[in-house]
Design a protein that fits this description.
The chain is an alpha/beta fold. The chain has a domain of 222 residues: 3-Layer(aba) Sandwich (Rossmann fold), CATH 3.40.50. The strands form four sheets. Strands 3-4-14-9-10-13 form a six-stranded mixed sheet, with helices on both faces. A five-stranded parallel sheet has the order 8-5-6-7-15, with helices on both faces. A hairpin with a 4-residue loop joins strand 3 and strand 4. Helix 5 crosses helix 10 and helix 13 packs across helix 15. The chain binds pyridoxal-5'-phosphate (PLP) and ligand LJ64HWYM. The site of pyridoxal-5'-phosphate (PLP) has 16 residues, from helix 11. It is an enzyme of class 4 (lyase). It catalyses: O-phospho-L-homoserine + H2O = L-threonine + phosphate. InterPro entries: Ser/Thr_deHydtase_PyrdxlP-BS, Thr_synth_N, Thr_synth_N_sf, Thr_synthase-like, Threonine_Synthase, TrpB-like_PALP, TrpB-like_PALP_sf. Keywords: Amino-acid biosynthesis, Lyase, Pyridoxal phosphate, Threonine biosynthesis. This is Threonine synthase.
Length: 468
């Protein structure tokens, strides 16, 4: 499998190189040259397989010959062996239509573990054959950071520098990052928003002098391998609910558009996906883009769903590229226009293409709280606020979807990560599973820096290990 950049001028890479590279050198994102396609029989054959076997079959076409099938299986067995549920991503039924796909049974209690536990092992495997030291630079609104740090802490040949918006992540999210004291872990609280942090990460990847000194890689969903691993659970849930004979709709709480783009990939591979419902909070750029074609940023508003307090959604570029006939130079021009003005209009082809599969909804705090209370009263489920945004969007669109189609909301985090917000909405204070350990008695270590690229760059350069 070859991977090409959405902006058309970076070299095409194979799976190993694309995993280690993260962002393309022309500022674009890597995407497979063509989507692999499963026949109905191949999808039917996934029924009854374990999560690990499903993962091997779904990911094999993307991995190509970078790993043998047995080696891929061994890495998946190790990665998903750390999950606390045998099914890894179990389905829970809420009522006759609505289901939850629980993605939070990994070590750090959010869906990010599904991809990052594997990515940590892929990094280690690929680095074992190279004389290279990897410098991971990432931005987090709370969950990617803890999952990535857990996945790479203490690994030889890797340093991780993780930027989070100071004061805008939950106390559990922050402590999951800052109490990891391995010498290769560096936490930076940025005096700004997640978007500021993400922009700095992308600027470092674009800085020739910096990338000449350090081998940078990404753990955010700009890294293709993140999305590849997330495609698996769409197939895993889909076949359990009747695919390929039956179509499924998915509602996805969305920020950086990675998780829902993985659903789009599953649909391109042949999974019968009836609808992908993009659920945003009041930071609603994606809802505006999908419903009106207007992709323009505003101020980021802090909400009870901090992991979705994002305006600039990295993976939207992958969708626009795929819907816009995959023309790299046109995509580069469109994105450069957006980067200059912080606004762009979707083309007709992009709007019409998106409308075939996507619906969207903007969910405010009241609708989120209502969904939380409904799930608790109706099905005894305590939802995290992000999942509740997803469920509220699922309910908003349910009447437009054939009643025979099950609607699956992706449950992206454990409620215990957002205890204060859940308590405010429902009066119930969720506990934390024992596997997170003594989070509140451990020492924290992080530095606070201004949202100034030069300051952040200098701080990282002083501590990072040159590539070779
Ligand atoms: C709990 C939770 N839900 C939803 C999202 C949004 O996912 P994505 O950025 O892939 O759209 C995030 C952050 O990414 C998250 O941490
Ligand atoms: N919500 C995310 C933001 C980063 O998203 P990613 O999927 O691109 O890593 C977080 O929790 O950090």
């Amino acid at each position: 499998m070859r991977y090409i950049s959405t902006r058309g001028s970076a070299p095409a890479l194979d799976f190993e190189a694309v995993t280690l590279a993260g962002l393309a050198s022309d500022g674009g994102l890597y995407i497979p040259e063509a989507w692999p396609r499963f026949s109905a029989d191949e999808i039917a054959a996934l029924a009854g397989l374990s999560y690990v076997e499903t993962a091997v079959r779904v990911m094999a076409p993307f991995v190509g010959d970078a790993l043998g099938e047995d080696e891929l299986r061994a890495l998946c067995t190790q990665a998903y062996g750390r999950f606390s549920h045998d099914a890894v991503t179990p389905l829970v039924q809420l009522d006759h239509r609505h289901w939850l796909l629980e993605l939070f049974h990994g070590p750090t209690l959010a869906f990010k573990d599904v991809a990052l536990q594997l990515l940590g092992l892929l990094f280690e495997r690929f680095l074992s054959q190279r004389d290279t030291h990897l410098t991971i630079v990432g931005a987090t609104s709370g969950d990617t950071g803890s999952a990535a740090i857990d996945a790479v802490a203490g690994r030889a040949k890797i340093d991780i520098f993780m930027l989070h918006p100071a004061g805008r992540v939950s106390d559990v999210q922050r402590r999951q990052m800052t109490t990891m004291l391995a010498p290769n872990v560096h936490n930076i609280a940025i005096e700004g928003s997640f978007d500021d942090a993400q922009a700095m990460v992308k600027a470092l990847f674009a800085d020739r002098e910096f990338t000449g000194r350090f081998a940078l890689s990404a753990v955010n969903s700009i890294n293709w391998a993140r999305l590849m691993a997330q495609v698996v659970y769409y197939f895993y849930a889909g076949v359990r609910l009747g695919a390929p004979g039956k179509a499924i709709a998915f509602a996805v709480p969305t920020g950086n558009f990675g998780d829902v783009f993985a659903g789009y990939v599953a649909a391109q591979m042949g999974l019968p996906v009836e609808r992908l419902i993009v659920a945003t909070n009041v930071n609603d750029i994606l809802h505006r883009a999908l419903s009106t074609g207007d992709y323009s940023t505003g101020q980021v508003v802090p909400t009870a769903t901090p992991s979705m307090d994002i305006q600039v959604s990295s993976n939207f570029e992958r969708l626009l590229f795929d819907l816009g006939a995959r023309e790299g130079s046109a995509m580069a021009a469109q994105m450069q226009g957006f980067e200059a003005s912080r606004a762009m209009k979707l083309t007709n082809a992009q709007r019409e293409g998106a409308a075939k599969l996507f619906a969207s909804a903007r969910i405010d705090a009241d609708a989120m709280s209502l969904a939380m209370r409904w799930a608790n009263e109706r099905a005894g489920q305590i939802l995290d606020p992000h999942t509740a945004v997803g469920l509220a969007a699922a309910m908003h669109h349910a009447d437009e979807i054939d009643p025979a189609v099950p609607i699956v909301t992706l449950a992206t985090a454990h409620a215990g990560k957002f205890r204060d917000a859940v308590e405010r909405a429902t009066g119930i204070r969720p506990g934390l599973p024992a596997r997170v350990g003594s989070l509140f008695s451990r020492e924290e270590r992080f530095v606070t820096l201004p949202a100034d690229l030069n300051v952040v760059k200098a701080w990282i350069a002083e501590r990072a290990t040159p590539s070779a």
